[in-house]
Amino acid sequence: MKFISRRVHAMLDYIVGILLILAPTLLGFSHIPGAKYSAIIAGVLVLGMALLTRHEGGVAKVIPMSTHLVMDVILGILLALSPWLLNFSDQVFLPHLIVGVFSIIAGLCTAPASQHGVAQGGVLS
Description:
mainly alpha
């Protein structure tokens, strides 16, 4: 079910990207290199994709929305697994897991076509 509109998705991209970049400092894991850099790199990628995507929040509009959504799912999987892949799960894992799962859900539940008003079959627009 596609219940997130492209407009809402674009806003979430910017919010999540900024929060990922700030998370190591805000959540106190800036002393753990794998945790710190995986969050910051993911945040930069999210912001970069948001700026380059053909959606309501895009600036350059060169990446098709369908490609953006696939990248959200891939990035979400990698971010969710990063605590175990990069061996820092014994110190911190919840921020990466939560945001990773959120990214997967956003990628799967966003309407790829432009919506006006309520997203098709849903409530977020």
